[in-house]
Specification:
By secondary structure, the protein is an alpha/beta fold. The protein has 9 helices and 17 strands. The chain is globular, with a radius of gyration of 21 Å.
Amino acid sequence: MSNINYSHHQESSSDHETRGKTITCKAAVVWGPGEPFSVEEIQVDPPKQMEVRIKILYTSICHTDLSAWKGENESQRVYPRILGHEAVGVIESVGEGVEDMREGDYVVPVFNGECGQCVYCKSDETNLCERYRVNPLKCVMLADSKTRFWTQNGPRPIFHFLNTSTFTEFTVLDSACVVKIDSDSPLKKVTLLSCGVSTGLGAAWNTANVQPGSTVAIFGLGAVGLAVAEGARSRGASRIIGVDINPDKFIKGKAMGITDFINPNDVDSVSEKIMKMIKGGVQYSFECAGKLSVLREAFLSTHDGWGLTVILGIHATPEMMPFHPMELFQGRRIIGSVFGDFKPKTQLPLLARQCLQGVVNLDGFITHELPFSQINEAFQLLVDGKSLRCLLQL
């Protein structure tokens, strides 16, 4: 591991002499689709203009990392690469022009950035950013179209992932993709706000705007799906139906507000089952599985005339939506949600405070904790359906 010692208390990086210099540290590098992660020493360049270099304290594993590791989308394959996008860390140094953060600040990296200046960031209609929005094809930094990661020997460039690359002791990000958090925040829990929990909560609160007394169906009870349940519960939904083939998820879901469970293996049609449970169907459904057959069932489970389906699952290309356009004439609507429609820099600090005040419960999402060196075992836990979030400590 790196010889730089950061405690989990705010401190100035004047105590060390890494500012402006290349850092040698440990990172988990993936060299090809499905190949085991190689934990090895790499070199990390200092940040350039409007960039920051962060010491990662905790990082966790999301299904998006799993999909990228497997190389399920061929157009997004690029190697060697450092994956990871859920984390919390402390700023080691800032590049020229960065004014909203300083060395020693605790921060959360976000894959969907916010520059605050473009027409998108200034609009109330979207949380996308013209330059720093989520882009799975992006693998270099915008400042110079180069990487900040290099192999120890060679050197050879190691590519970036989702504006973040958190499976490393040190990472470099555009400052637009970093959110400052309160110094007294519980760091393990805050890690969850980088992706899964924010995405699920925001889908219920912002995208769907779930109303008190409403009915909800959630297809896929991973961390995102259970975060949707938390969001719907906190909004006062009267019934929240969870759909998953893993019965262990049902036990976890009950603590997060799910009132009814359906195992697709036990019924001929999930949507028909939901129609029988709730006459006409639910008001809101959320697809969190990334499978077209599940998306269709989620769509058909909503009430005609006003039902809304929110897509949260990551779908492989080149698959297309399983609908005939005329089916939308029955009043059902369908929409996608990125990062729960939260503007990260503007709204994530408030969300963090709400979570810590008990508006939602974050305690149940971290199911496992392992040292960074056991990242391959952590991925296997997710593959086997045994973990929601496995936290890795660096």
